[in-house]
Each structure stands twice: as C-alpha cells, then as structure tokens.
Specification:
Layout lengths: L1 H19 L7 H23 L10 H22 L11 H27 L10 H32 L3 E6 L3 H12 L5 E8 L8 E2 L2 E5 L3 H8 L1 E6 L6 H13 L3 E4 L17 E2 L2 H5 L8 H8 L3 E5 L4 H11 L5 E6 L2 H13 L6 E5 L5 H11 L3 E4 L6 H6 L1 H21 L4 E5 L10 H16 L6 E6 L2 E3 L5 H10 L4 E3 L5 E2 L1 E3 H14 L5 E4 L5 E2 H11 L10 E3 L19 E3 L5 E4 L6 H9 L1 H7 L2 H11 L11 H9 L1
Parallel strand pairs: 1-2, 1-5, 2-4, 5-6, 8-9, 8-11, 9-10, 11-12, 12-13, 13-18, 14-17, 15-20
Antiparallel strand pairs: 3-4, 6-7, 16-19, 18-22, 21-22
Helix pairs in contact: 2-3, 2-5, 3-4, 4-5, 11-18, 13-15, 15-16, 15-21, 16-20, 16-22, 17-19
C-alpha cells in the first residue's frame, strides 16, 4: 500500500511538472496581463517609496488613482504596439530585453512630455505624475518585466534538462573556452551542462571562471568519475599536434566522447555557435604538423600558366586543383571521365568563387583523339597526372584494365606532353609500386619506368611522386569504417596485424606541388609518411570517438587478406634507398634507370594481350618488366613459381 502511494505521488509530481513545462507555450494574454500587473504594482510601489511608506494625510487616494490610470493606459497601449507579450518566454533573449527597454523608455518619455505640456500650458497646476514616481516606476517595471522572463526561462530549462543533461568538461580557460561554455548554455536543445574547466595548471588551483572550478588536466580521470562526465570539449588552441593528440588519447582512455571548437576565424560574425562544435575525428589523431611550402618557388612556376590535371574528379586530383588555385594560374583544365564527381567539384569551386580560371573537360586518358584535342586546344604548360585505377583487389581481378589505364593511359598523356612542349609532367604514383605484390602496384611501377625513361628526351621534365594511403580518399578505410559504424557494424578488418602509413589529402597534395616545383627531372620523390598505424587500432579508436563500446555496441570482424594485399607496407624513407632533399618530408628514391626505346617496346607487347583479354599473359609480361613484382595472396603466385623454375 505504501509503495502504491509513493508511486502515485511520484506520478502526480511528474504530471504536474509535465503540465507546467510541456511543449505548449504560455498564452499571450496571460503574459500581457502579467506585464500590466507588473506596471500597476510598480506605480503603487513608486508611490509608497516616494513617501517612505508613510503617506501624508493630505495625499488623497484619488491622486494615486489618477496617476495609475494615466500610466497604465500608456503602458497598455505601448505593450500592444510593441508586442512585448508576443515573445515565447522560455526563449527570451537579448532582443526581447532590448524591445522591453525601448517600449518602457518610450512610454516614460511620453508621460514626461504629457506632464510638461499640461503644466506649462496651465491645464494642471502641477505635474500630473510626479517626476520621482515616473523614475521609480520606469526602473521597477523594466527590471521586473525583464527579470521575470529570464527567471522563467531559467526555471523552465533547469527542470526540462536536469534529468537528461550530460556533463561536459571544457579544456582551456581562455576566451575560446568561455565562449564554448556560453554557446552550450544558450543552446537549450543541446542537453549538455558544463561542470568544470581543466587546463595545464598545477593541481587544485582553487580558481574559478563563470563560477565553475578550474582543475588540472592531470585530475581528469578523477573528475570524470566524480561528476559523471560524458564529454570533453577541446576549446584551447594547441601549440603542437603532439599535445592535441595526447589530450585526445587521454580522453579516449577514460571512455569519454570529445568535441572540438573551431578556430576563431571560422566563428559566425565573431561569435561561436553550438552548431559549430563538432566531434573529434580520427584524422585529428593522425594529422601532423603543417607542411612548410616554398610558396615563392611554386607561385613562380604556376602563376599565369595553364595547368592540366588528369583524374581531377578524384580525391587527390581535386585537392591538387584546390591547392593550385591559390597560386593564381591562368587556367586549370580539369580532365576526368567521371561526370557526376566532375560536376560536384565544379559546383564547389563556383560556390567558393574560385571557378573563374577553371575548365571542365570530360574524357578518358586512354582515348588518343580526346587527349590530343585537349593538348591542342588548351596547350597546358604543366601536367599533374593523377588519373589511375588504384584499388588493389579490383585491379588484381582486372589486370587488363590496370594496364590499359595505368600503363597505356599514362604513356599517352606523357607522349602528348612531349609532343606539345609541356615544361613539367608530375606523375602521382604510390608506395605500392615499391617491390610490388599486386597488379595495381606493378602497373604504377611500369608507368614510373616509362615516364622516367622519357626524361632528357625533350625539354619536358618528368617528375614522379610516391606516397601511401591518404585519409578520406575514395575507397580508403576511414570512410568505410565510418559507414560501418553508422550502420551499427560490424567493422571489417582484413587481418589483426595489418598496418598502413597514412597522411591527409591536403598534406599529400602540398608535397606533390612542392616536389613538382623543386624537381629537375627524372626523380622519383617519396614522402615521409610518419609512423605505421595498425588498422585494428584505428578501428578501435574510431569506435571510441563515436561514443560506442567495442564488444557491446559494435563488433570487429576479420575477413582475411584480399588478393594482392600484404600485411606491411614497406618503409621507403630510409637511408639505404633514398637521398635527402632540402625539404625534411621529401626524399628522392634510388631506382634503376631504363632506356626509353626498351621500355616502350616492352609496353607495346601489352597491346595484343589486351585484345586477347588474357590476364595471365598480361601479368607475366608485367613480371618480366618489373622483376621484383612477386604476387602475394593471389592466383598469380603460380607465375612466380613458373618463372623461378625457368
């Protein structure tokens, strides 16, 4: 019986709370009547204060009634004209306070004018409303009308969000951190509550900001447990990438989700909006310090010239275009066969007002007539060749297309560059071309061999750039893992020990421009890819960053190595196979040089094989050209055994 009574009382309280703080808004007429009551009460209060709560006997009640009628009439009319009662009380803001201020001030000025007119024209022997009452009523009415609205707003959101608000700790104590706190508090749909600040300070400082305590970042683990913290908001600009990654790792290890405050220059009209506060991305854990480019040298080679970018619709090609635009070229010809992605990049550039010097050309790099027309019509002075088939398993199953596109397509573009007097030809290659274990890597190595062999045959300088996986590129693990997480999993990893090197797309493309500008011709530039990353660890961190728990909310499954895939990418940046350059993140690979006629003749042998569509013949020819090409986890391993026996 007692339990039933308690349940009934709790249910009654909840119903009362819901009835008061439901989504239905307070009727306007009630707000209007409250405002009128406040004005009336303020007149009485002003009258009482004027006489220090001891009204002299000679003061008549009629005078108070006369004053009240005039002031209330003015207030009612001004409220109706200004619509002070029309605002939704729970969303009261500074604009509402400003409207009330203007309305009350205007009404008081009007009463003052009536006073002066009636007195100086002799209509009344004295002021209708004493000046002291006007002033006191003005201040009292304005204070209570504004204060009650903000009080009602605070009470409403306190009750509404108290049960489901998630506690947040803000990292930082500067202007950004305070702005982040205010942005969260003002967004009443966010359901977040800031409970403390943390910073790189000594423990237990005892100081406060906005009445919230400041703690050392070293106390984070204790604070998370003590305050039941769900989120850490990174609001402080970091002095280094390493420090940022250290804090993110600290948050991940303590099982909380992290948000990031954008740079001040991205704030809207100088103010931070809660909508701009985003989740930390996996890219933040893999990024490195900004690359120092030789802007003067790049601009000297690019400014006022015509560029051709093949594969311009791809993740690398499109970023090369974005980077080139900064250096004021005369024209950038975007060449790709992917119609929809080309439309997307064109719209992006037009929206950013960067499309005045771009030309969109749809075409295939293996179509000789189309490629010839592009070179004849636009006469490019520099070519960035990023077009390629790059997915390892796809090319392992389709070697004919790997050779047609990556080898013959590259040869066609390179030959046209020579024929039409292009000054520089920059080819985008891959680290999979080093000791290749798959068809894709081998096809790119043959393309490297051919373009290198052309260097010195004409005025065109042929430069090759190699790098590994780029974050967020089409088909990379990052977008795939994100999609799998959104769908509830599982996340699929090929092998628990597989590792890869990563860099961001902008970083890779900046290095391409730098290498392209500094190359003298014939070099294969390789980029410092940083530390190798275990893919399964990458997946685990992405799960944590999404606020999920491995094994409870989502699973990781292993699918086995795909055709042509190897566990470890080779580290190219070592002293045995590279030569340093003035740029710390760029090296030159030591590779064998090939005779052009010999390379050209061997590539010609692919043409009848493509017509025959014989995959094994094509792959065998690739192994003849690239002896270090040894297949792994592939049906073509039998060719290696056959060639070893012979």
């Amino acid at each position: 019986m007692v339990v039933k009574s308690k349940n009934y009382i709790c249910g009654l309280k909840n119903r009362i709370r819901m009835s008061i703080f439901s989504k239905k808004y307070t009727p306007r007429w009630i707000v209007f009547m409250i405002d009128v009551f406040i004005s009336t009460a303020s007149i009485v209060m002003a009258y009482m204060l004027r006489f220090n709560f001891e009204i002299p006997e000679n003061e008549k009640v009629g005078e108070l009634q006369q004053i009240m009628e005039l002031v209330v009439a003015v207030r009612v009319i001004s409220f109706l004209i200004a619509g002070t009662y029309a605002g939704i009380v729970r969303y009261t803001g500074m604009s509402d306070a400003k409207r009330i201020f203007i309305t009350i001030t205007s009404g008081s000025i009007f009463i003052g004018i009536v006073n002066l007119v009636c007195y100086y024209t002799g209509i009344t022997p004295a002021f209708i409303v004493p000046i002291s009452i006007i002033i006191i009523e003005y201040l009292t009415t304005m204070f209570f009308m504004i204060a009650l609205r903000f009080l009602a707003k605070s009470i409403f959101f306190e009750f509404k969000t108290k049960a489901k608000a998630k506690n947040v700790i803000v990292y930082g104590i500067d202007r950004n951190a305070q702005a982040a706190k205010h942005a969260i508090e003002e967004d009443h749909n966010s359901n977040y509550k800031v409970v403390a600040f943390v910073d790189d300070i000594s423990k237990k400082s005892g100081k406060k900001i906005d009445d919230l305590p400041i703690y050392s970042i070293d106390d984070l683990a204790e604070l998370i447990e003590e305050h039941d913290v769900h989120h850490l908001l990174l609001a402080k600009p970091f002095q280094s990438i390493e420090k940022k990654q250290e804090i993110i790792e600290l948050g991940l290890n303590n099982g909380i989700t992290m948000f990031n405050v954008p740079k001040v220059e991205r704030w809207i009209n100088g103010e931070l909006s809660s909508k701009q506060i985003k989740n930390i991305r996996i890219e933040d854990l893999l990024e490195r310090n900004p690359i120092q480019l030789d802007f003067n040298r790049i601009q000297e080679q690019v400014k006022g010239k015509t560029m051709l970018v093949t594969g311009a619709a791809g993740s690398i090609g499109s970023e090369i275009v974005r980077q080139l635009i900064r250096f004021e070229p005369h024209n950038i010809v975007l060449f790709d066969q992917a119609e929809t992605p080309m439309y997307d990049i064109e719209m992006e550039l037009r929206d950013s007002q960067s499309a005045s010097n771009i030309t969109i050309v749809i075409g295939d790099i293996t179509d000789e007539q189309r490629v010839k027309e592009v070179f004849e019509l636009y006469k490019p002075e520099i070519v960035y060749h990023a077009a390629a088939y790059k997915h390892v398993p796809m090319m392992e199953n389709n070697p004919v297309e790997a050779v047609r596109n990556n080898v013959l397509g590259t040869r066609l573009i390179a030959d046209m560059a020579v024929k039409y007097g292009v000054s520089r030809f920059v080819m985008v290659s891959t680290d999979k071309a080093v000791n290749p274990t798959n068809v894709m890597g081998a096809s790119k190595r043959i393309a490297e061999i051919y373009t290198q062999s052309l260097n010195g045959k004409s005025a065109t300088r042929f430069i090759t750039t190699r790098f590994g996986n780029v974050l967020g590129s089409n088909g990379s693990v990052i977008p795939r893992f994100k999609k799998q997480i959104e769908e509830g999993g599982p996340i699929t990893v090929t092998h628990p020990q597989i590792t890869r090197y990563f860099m961001t797309i902008p970083e890779a493309c900046q290095l391409v421009l730098e290498a392209g500008a500094s190359g003298k011709g014939g070099e294969i530039f390789i980029f410092d890819m940083g530390k190798s990353v275990k893919i399964v660890d990458l997946a685990k961190k992405m799960i944590k960053l999404s606020g999920l728990e491995l094994g409870k909310d989502i699973q990781i499954t292993y699918t086995g190595l795909r055709p042509g895939e190897k566990l470890y990418e080779e580290l190219l940046a070592n002293k045995e196979n590279t030569i340093p350059t003035p740029h710390p993140q760029i090296m030159v690979a030591k590779v064998r040089e090939y005779n052009h006629d010999e390379a050209n003749a061997k590539i010609d042998e692919f043409i009848p094989m493509i017509a025959e569509q014989d995959n094994f013949k094509i792959v065998k020819q690739m192994k003849m050209i690239v002896p270090e090409f040894l297949s792994q986890n592939s049906i073509y391993e039998e060719l290696d055994k056959e060639m070893a026996r012979s």
